[in-house]
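Form 7-S
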Amino acid sequence: MAIPFTCPHCGKAVVVEDHFAGQSGPCAACGKLMTVPAPTGAPGTAQGSGAVGVLGVILGIGVAILMLCVGLGGLMYGLLMPAIGNVKRVSQQASSINHLKQITLALQNYEAVNGSFPPAFVTDSAGKPLYSWRVLILPYLQETALYERFDKSKAWDDPANIDVSNSMVKAFRSPADDQLADNGASYVAIVGRNTAIATGSGRKLTEFLDGTSNTILVLEVKEYAGSWAAPNDPTLALFGTGAIVGPGEEQLHGAQANGAILVASADGAVRQLDSAAAARVIVPAAITVNDGQVTPVQ
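Output:
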C-alpha cells in the first residue's frame, strides 16, 4: 500500500511504500528532515479513533452509573437516618429504664437492711447537709469500693471526699443526657417532709399509706447541675403546687428526646410522663406518701 503525504516544510507531494511508515529522511525538494506517517486507517490515526471513542463512551457510562449509585446511596442514607435515630432513642430509653430499676432496687434493698429508705441527705450535728442519698446506696449498686473511700463524717466537697465525688458512677447517668458532666447525676428525687426520699429521717415502707405504686421515688431529668454526691435534689417547696416539667428555667427537663420524663415509683415500676409544650405538673399527691390523695402514676 502506498502512503501519499506532503512535506511539512515545503509542501512537496510525496508517495512512498507503507513499509517506510514511521521512518525519517530528507525531502527530495528542500532537503529538510521529514517523517513518513502511518497508513491511513491504521491504529492511532483519525480513522482508527473509533476505538478511542468507544472507550470514551464506556467510561462515560461508568461515571454515570457511579454517580447514580452515589445519589441512591445519599437517598438511602436520608431515608434511613430517621429510623437509625429512632433505634438510638429506643436504646437510650431502655438503658435509662434499666438504670432507674437499678436505683429503685438499691433503695429497696437499703430499706430492707436499714429499716427505712435513706434520707434525702445526711447532716452534721448542726443540721448542715453533707451529702446526698445517692452516696448511701452505693454499696447496693456494686460501688462498695467507692463508698468505702468516702469519708461519711465530712461533706461531699470536702478535700477528703472531692476525688470520690468527682468520680463517674454509670448507674447515675442517663445515656440521653449527653451534656452531663462526668460527676453528674441524671436521676434525682423530689424531696420534702412527706416525700418518699424525705428530709430528716428516712421513710419507712409502712409509711407509704397512699401505696407504693402511687408514689414517685426517683425521676430522670436532664442538665440538673451538681455532683451525684451533692445534697442538691429539687425540693417540693421549690415547685409549690407541684413539680413542673417543661422548657423553663424553673422547671425539670425531661431527658428523653421528646421531652418526656421517666419516673420510678416505690414499687419498682418505671413509667413515662409526657411533657407537652405548655409543661406538665407532677402533683404533690404523686410525690408524697401519706397525704390521703391517691394520684395513680400513669
